[in-house]
Amino acid sequence: MKLLRWLVLALMAGVAAGASSALQAEEFLKFSPVSSSISYVLVALVGFSIGLLVREVQEGLIMALSITLVGVITIFLALYLPNVEIVATAPELILRSVWWGGLSTFFLTIIGMVVGRILSGE
Amino acid sequence: MGVSLLGVLLLISLVLLFLTEQSYAAFRQLLQGIQFTVELTDFEQVAPQQAHLRWIVTVTIPNLKTPASLELVDWHVRSADGSMHLGYYTTGEIQITLASVTKVPVEAVIEGPNFEELQQIREASEGALLFQGMARLRFRLPRGEEIKIIPVVGVFTLPEGEE
Q1: Which residues fall within 8 angstroms of residue B82, CB to CB, at 6 or more apart?
Q2: SS percent in chain B: helix, strand, coil, step 5
Q3: What angle do CA A38, A97, A117 make, to 5 degrees?
Q4: Interchain contact, B17 vs A23, CB within 8 Å
Q5: How far is A16 from chain B (nearest CA, A)?
Q6: Angle, to 10 degrees, between the axis of helix A3-23 and the axis of helix A36-51?
Q7: Does pTM top 0.90 for this prediction?
Q8: Residue B24 and residue A82: Cβ atoms within 8 Å?
Q9: B23 touches chain A (CB under 8 A)
Q10: CA distances (Å), B84 to each of A116, A117, B118, B125, B130, in order?
């Protein structure tokens, strides 16, 4: 996989996974148009779509880590920007959501990737 | 197929996040715009040791688009300096559906030792009283209910010459 394509995919997948994961953050949960289980499915589908594109286990693992990194930044920005004044006094309020969002993004991406590899028959 | 699916997922997730953030920001703005005013509308001595007070609590919520209701709970009447407590009252389980401007009538009967204290306040500090209460606001959001408890405070003066 060429480096540029790889970076674009990691960025697209990371932003999609992070945005989906942010929907089930404590702060947004009651305001989301979809339930938290739908947001988890969306993250897993991101992993699934990447699973159709990667070829090797190592490549998939590095991609999952990159998606998680970009995803965590996306979650942080999604929660930080509308809560700038709250975060200034109590940063722990969003850090918990960012931590949990990053963890769930990583594992759901891996699960989605494994399913994608199995269904693609490779 | 993988890239197309990823593109669709990116679009869906960003649209959902945008809608969620808009709804969240609108709700926070709504909370910042809530105002309470307390106004004494009637003071009447109905018996030698009993007075009847009525207030109107006005709740103003600009651009209210979220269904909401209100309960006034745990409210007290004190002397303006807070030294004398004239009673504790509650509106119980009454829930009032909120509009952009909602007027909530509240009343209390002050009698016995509390009435004597009320008389002392009228003589000593020009009848200035403090209304302190808690408003429990329930907002029905797209996914669940959000409850906010907001303090309500109002200072008012009892009319002179009525015994």
Answers
A1: B130
A2: 25, 50, 25
A3: 45
A4: yes
A5: 4
A6: 170
A7: no
A8: yes
A9: yes
A10: 72, 74, 9, 12, 10
* pLDDT tens sequence across A64-122: 999 999 999 999 999 888 888 777 767 777 888 899 999 999 999 999 999 988 887 76
The two tokens of residue A46 are 């991101």
CB B40 within 8 A of CB B158: yes
Distance, CA of A111 to CA of A104 (rounded, Å): 10
Which of B6, B142, B144 shows the shortest C-beta gap to A33?
A: B142
- Sorted by where each begins, the domain ranges of chain B are 1-32, 35-157
Contact B143 A23 (CB under 8 A): no
The confidence score (pLDDT) of residue A122 equals: 63
Residues of chain A in Cβ contact (below 8 Å) with chain B: 9, 12-13, 15-17, 19-20, 22-23, 27-35, 39, 42, 45-46, 48-53, 78, 81-82, 116
Q: Which residues contact B146 (CB under 8 A, 6 or more apart)?
A: A30, B27, B138, B139
B68 contact residues in A (CB cutoff 8 A): none
Cβ contact B13–A12 (<8 Å): no
Task: Name the amino acid, one letter, at B117.
Answer: E
Q: What is the pLDDT of residues B12-48, one digit of tens each?
A: 999 999 999 999 988 888 888 899 988 888 888 888 8
- Check A30 against B21: CB less than 8 A apart: no
CATH of domain B35-157: 2.60.40
Exposure of A23 in the CB half-sphere (CA atoms within 13 A) = 28
DSSP string, A75-99: HHHHHHGGGHHHHHH-THHHHHHHH
The residue in chain B having the minimum alpha-carbon distance to the alpha carbon of residue A82 is: B25
